[in-house]
Structures are given as structure tokens and as C-alpha cells.
Design brief:
The protein is mainly beta and 667 residues long. Helix content is 10%, strand content 58%. It contains 8 helices and 32 strands. The protein has a 22-stranded antiparallel barrel. A hairpin with a 3-residue loop joins strand 18 and strand 19. The longest helix is centred in the N-terminal third of the chain and has 29 residues. The radius of gyration is 25 Å and the shape is globular.
Length: 667
Amino acid sequence: MTALADKANIDNLRRNISPVIFILFLYCLAFNLKSETLDDNFFDLSLEQLADIQITSVAKKPQKLSLTASSVFVLNQQDILRSGVTTIADALRMVPGVQVAKLDSNKWAVSIRGFNDIFSNKLLILMDGRTVYSPFFGGAYWDTVDTVLQDIDRIEVVKGPGGTLWGANAVNGVINISTKKASETAGLLVSALAGNEERGELNIRYGGDINTDTHYRIYAKGFEKDEAENGVDDWRMGRAGFRLDSELKQDNNLTFQTEVYLGEEGEMASAATNVAPFGNFASTTDVFGGHALFRWNRDLADDSDLSFQAYYDRAEREHFYIKDRRDTVDLDFQHRFQSIWQQEFVWGLGFRYITDEIAAGSLMAVSPQQRSDQIYSAFIQDEISLIDEQLILTVGSKIEHNSYTGFEYQPSARLLWKPFAQHSLWGAISRAVRVPSRGEQDSTIHRGFAAPGVIMNILGSREMDAEELLAYELGYRFLGKQFSLDLSLFYNEYDNLRSVEQTALIGAVLPLVLDNKLYGETYGLELAASWLVNEDWRLYAGYSFIQMQLHALASSTDGSEEQDEGDTPHHQFNLRSLWQVAESWQLDTTLRYVDLVRGTQGLGAKESVKSYLTVDLRVAWQVHESLALSLVGQNLLGKHREFRGSTVETQATDVEPSIFLKLDFNY
């Protein structure tokens, strides 16, 4: 038996290593080709210049990365294009410290610094300044976070609390997706791809100008993805949108954009409940939505500006477990100005109005079915240059009033020191909160049978308090011309975490009521490194480690802290290579490792998910200045499981190898 087991292990190792050896062979072969640098701005910039492209997510103003007292990672357009990814969620795998796990072909669990789940609720997602999340559970549906990927300018990922500027739910991080201005997308773009898992995708975008100061683009995107083996999780979606940017006189800039989407996605679920359906069953989720956004910016003298933004968002989703229709109106005003003693203030006011209508599904009911909520907010932040561009202190706070827990405050203090031009050290102390969601206050979830004849239900509670975080961070950053290094250390203390408390049996029903009787700590590190090997070849490496320790109060009956600890892998590692092999050829590779997700026993037991190693490969050929072809292979080391089933009994499927051919035409 031992000999057979050893042989099986050797065969498995051979299967995993063979694609890696093949990729190394391609690299060795390519070294013999004449390398001519493609006329590409990305390869014309040093790592120091790339890293100092201005970002806005940390301070709500343009700011150099070298002067940022926060853990930040930026994905630019070249990163997204050359990774070969087809979704924004998969692009985030490149960011150290972000946990991304695919549940099935259309669902992801995405989090930062722990608490990973398909319903992650401690992460704020923004797209062009518009908050993208569902107040029903306090997180994002990643199937609808999408656009034409070629139109994305950058994705800024802030790891750590962002509540001082962005408000509640920006607890463990902020992901800010910014698309290009209309003036940067002139002409016609047609992008199409097809493969075994990617059945087909078509992107069409056209940009032009109305006059010298006003530009526009119009776009449409549609795709269909295959279901997993023995699964029913196929996915198809279409969207269309428009953007207009106008640069008026007297430094006034206007932006208007609108979009609508429609989709259908399958899933396999199980329902051991007291209502139909029973057991495993196939289901279809229908989604529909759209938004309209208006933004006005005015530049004032001496690095000061004003901005006003308003948007309306409509989202509809029909699950097997719930039917949710929601309207959101959001208003936001901001003013930035210089003051005496080398101080720069940013302050703002905000208002959000949310109304919904929720109908019961097979596993969940909500009462009342209709609800309206308001959020009022104000923030102020002061950046003090104690020593110009060498020692910078930033302090501020946001105050919000919401319909769930009333007033909440979220202060922070950050200090950055640049002892030398290429080196910077920073530290931060921050407080952030997560307010309860609509589902946590008003829902009833049918969880099946606790014992023969005993029905188990999870009940929401309007007595829930906000979850609280006190975060301590330290960081070091080196930005050189050929090498860069970014190291972040964090220690987080959580209080009032959500728990599920058992109460007395009522007839044949065992009620479990939501409460705030968990607390805990997380700590870890994130490391990102870049190396410009030569003018045509760049290497990127990322590693993250996290340890979670959750505890229950003595009065708690929850017992789920070990389950929550196990949802996040301790170790993650990725290595990316971007290589301009010849004038018209590119060879890009990603190696990725993710640690196991531990299983648990007892009530609500969860299965474990094994560690996995996988490789992605992209080969691109610039046929003509207007035409490019690329062949992309993803998960080439074989199928693997990345996450387990969700709280609402959606079943996880294996992630399978994917190969597709892509065509990009620009004119």
C-alpha cells in the first residue's frame, strides 16, 4: 500500500510540474530571439516612476505613493491586460493581502485581512466614486462588478481601515476601480474571446469628441461562461453604457456616465428545510440593474478644489432564497484647501437614501418587506507637513448617522517619515465600524433540522450593535529605479463581532438569534516586490500571512469562532513575469499558491479545502498596430476547489483549467 501511495504521489507531482517545465522551456527558447522594445509607455517607465503615479483612494486627493502612510497596491491597465483575466474579481488575485476564492463560475469570496466569505462585509468597493455593495448583507455581488476591462485606468487597493474618509463598512480595506476619461478612449475597440470555459465574450466601444473640450464613449459587453463539470453554474450577462467628460472654462470639469446590465446565472444548492424545495436542486439567479452618475470638479488656486457628485442606482436580484429590489440616491460634496503652517484640509458632507422591497424565497423571509434608510455623514482630515515631504502627520475623523445604530465615529492618525528619497516608513492607528445590514436585522433564515422533528431558524435582531475595529499598522517602502519593496505589518482588535446565539426551544422550532458576542484579534504581514530585470522583462512577487484568533464571551452559546478563523488561508504567494520577448511578442506567466481552508466539526460543520498551486500563461502577438492576438491558459495545473458552500447553501464547484483565444482590434 505504501509503494502504491508513493507512486500516486510521484505521478501527481509529475503532472503538476510538467506544465512548469514547459513554461521554463518557452523562456529559454525566447532568450535566443532578438529582443526589441515595443513602443509601450509601460515599459518606458522605471519602477520608481510607476510607483509614484498619483493615487486618490487614501486621502481623497491626488497623492504620490511614496508619500502615502498606508498599505496600498495599484493595478494598472497593463497589469490587467497582461494577466489575461476576464473579471475584476480575478484581477484582485494579483494583490498581496487580498483573499480571492471562486465558489463557482459566477460567485467569489473576496476579502482583505481575513473574514473571507461569499458574503464578506468588511470591505468597501467603489467604481468611479460610486459605492458598489448590497446593503442587504453589507458586501458586494462580484458578478455585477464589471465593465469593459480595457477601459479601466487602475484599481487602487487600500489594505486596512478607510472609515475616516469612506465611512462605515470600509473596515479592512477599500477597493477603488477607476475607468479612463472619455478623451483617453477615442476610436473603435472590438475585443472578442472564446475557449472551453469562456464560451464567448464580445466588447465593443467607440469614443469620439463633440468639440475640443467635450469627449464621449459608448460601449457594450456580453459574455457566456461554461458551467463546471457536473454543475449547472453557467453564466451569461450583457451590459451597455455611456460616458461624457467635458473640460469647461475656469477649470470646471463635468462627468456624466450611465450603464445598464442584465444577466442570468445558474447554481447548485441544497435545502434541508421544512419548506420546498428539499435536498439538492438546480436554480437560476436573474439580475438587472443600472445607474446614472454626475460629477462636477472645480480647481481653485493654490492646490485647492471643490467637487460635487450625485448618483442614482437601481439593483434587482432574484435568488432562490430571496427577491431583492433596491434604489439608492447618493449625494457627496468635498472641499480641499491649503492652510497656514503647511497644512492641507479635506472636508466633506454626504447623504444617502436607500429604499428596498424584498420578497421571501425558499430559504429566507424578511419583515418588513419594504424599508427606507438614510445615512448622513461629515468628515474632516488635516495633513500637516512637519518637514516638507519628509515628515507628514495626517489626522481626521468621519461622523455618520445611520438608521441602524445611530451615530458612529471613525478617527485615525497616520505618520510618514522619509529619511531618504527612496525610503519611507509609516505608522497608523485607526478606528472603523461595520453597521448591521438589512438582512441581519430583519431576516429569518430556514437552516433545516437541528434534530429529527426540530426545525432550526436563524433570526435577525434589531438589537445588534456596530462591529468595531481598532487597527495598528506599520510599513516600510523602498522605490528604486529597478527594484521596489513594500512591507506592511498589522495588528487588529475586533469587538462586538456578529454571533449566532441559541435560545430556548419554542415547540418544534430551535431559534438562533444574531448578537454581538464574539471578539478577537488578527495579525499578519503583506509583502510586495518588483524587479526590472532589463528593459523588456519585469518580475513581481507577493506574499501575505494572516493569523486569526476569535473568542466568544462567557455568556455566548455561539461556538462558531473556529469556523470563521478557518475561512481565510494563512499563507498566499504569487509570482508574475511580464516579458516583451520581441517587438511583436509577449510572454506573461503567473504562479500562484494558496494555503488550505480548514474544516470544522459540530453544528454547521464546514468541509476543508486543500491548498493549491496553479499557473496561468499568456502568449500575445501584435499582428498589426491595430490588431493583437493572444492565447491564454488559466489554472493549467489541473482543477481544484477554492472555497466551500455558502451560508445560504449554494454549493461550491471545482475551478477547471481554461484556455481561450482573444482578439483585440483598435482603430
